[in-house]
Amino acid sequence: MANKLNKANLVDSIAKVAEISKAEAERQLNNVIAGLEATLATMKDGDKLQLVGVLTFEVKHKPAYTAKNPKTGEDVEVPASNKLKVKAGKGLIDLVQ
Predict the structure, then answer these.
(1) How much is the pTM?
(2) How far is it, in rounded angstroms, from Cα 4 to Cα 85?
(3) Chain segment 26-65, per-residue pLDDT in tens
(4) CB neighbours of 58 closer than 8 A, spacing ≥ 6?
(5) Quick one: three-class SS letters along the chain?
(6) Cα–Cα distance between 1 and 80 in angstroms, integer?
(7) Cα–Cα distances in angstroms (integers) from residue 40 to residues 32, 44, 69, in the given order
(8) Measured between alpha carbons, how far is 63 from 80 in angstroms, rounded to an integer?
């Protein structure tokens, strides 16, 4: 069975690698998360945030469309929306290979 990793595990790793306290590592991680959230909240269709070799975040616009309810066969209007696409970078992929 695979290990379950969570924020606490990440904080421990950051503290070890950066040689800082766990409290400082958690503050720094929270700052990174807040920065990502603020940046992603302002992104529009086609915008891309690329952390080279790690992750790419891209906003894609999905236009409105008509779908069918599988139970009733009735047409249902699905509204337009923006979707967040996250893609792992080569460096991250190579780490898990």
Answers:
(1) 0.70
(2) 24
(3) 999 999 999 999 998 888 888 999 999 999 999 999 999 9
(4) 46, 47, 48, 49, 84, 85, 86, 87
(5) CCCCCCHHHHHHHHHHHHCCCHHHHHHHHHHHHHHHHHHHHCCCCCCEEEECCCEEEEEEEECCEEEECCCCCCEEEECCEEEEEEEECHHHHHHHC
(6) 40
(7) 12, 9, 32
(8) 4
Residue 74, pLDDT > 70, answer yes
What are the structure tokens assigned to 83, written together?
Answer: 């979707």
Tokens of 13: 């790793």
Rg (CA), the chain: 19
